[in-house]
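Subject: Dephospho-CoA kinase structure
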Amino acid sequence: MTYVVGLTGGIGSGKTTVSDLFAELGVEVIDADIVARHVVEKGTPLLAQIVEHFGEDILNAEKELDRAKLRQMVFNNDTEKNWLNDLLHPAIRETMVKKLQESTACYLIWVVPLLIENKLTEFCDRILVVDVSPEIQLERATKRDKSKVETIRKIMATQVSREERLSYADDLIENNLPIEQGFVLIKEQVNSLHQKYLTLANKKEKECQKLS
């Protein structure tokens, strides 16, 4: 069995920065957001159901899902949000679990924003949390996603509190510093954690030696 490190953090915390650094070290990364995009790609049954429910306006000029428009719609309507979650979450979960089971890596990074909220910690050997203050989180996410502050606040409200998320952490990366300065420290922490995870995973998978 592959050693699974669940990587989580609130919106705008810097999960992608961290997972990309692990990927540069040759570590397999399974990203829930990427899986979520794949299950609603053009031509998929799930996208057809979304179009049937919301109408053709939910598509962009290329006939692909307009994710920003969909996010705006569902976060202002709990009924629609619940409908969408009931449609997508089982498919996303099934795809991710299959990827975990099929992996032959010594260890992998499993990036899941709602790891705790969706009770997926049972699939992890270890949990790595990227932590950031709510103020910085709001600023970064608003700028990155070009979304309204109210929308980002609503997203943050659907996620567990900072305190609860930290209570699950086996390992922690703080990302409160300015991007340039913080990146150097994050890279150092990732390199250190990589060696740590290789050691922990060595009992499970001999393949670890190829990455060390």
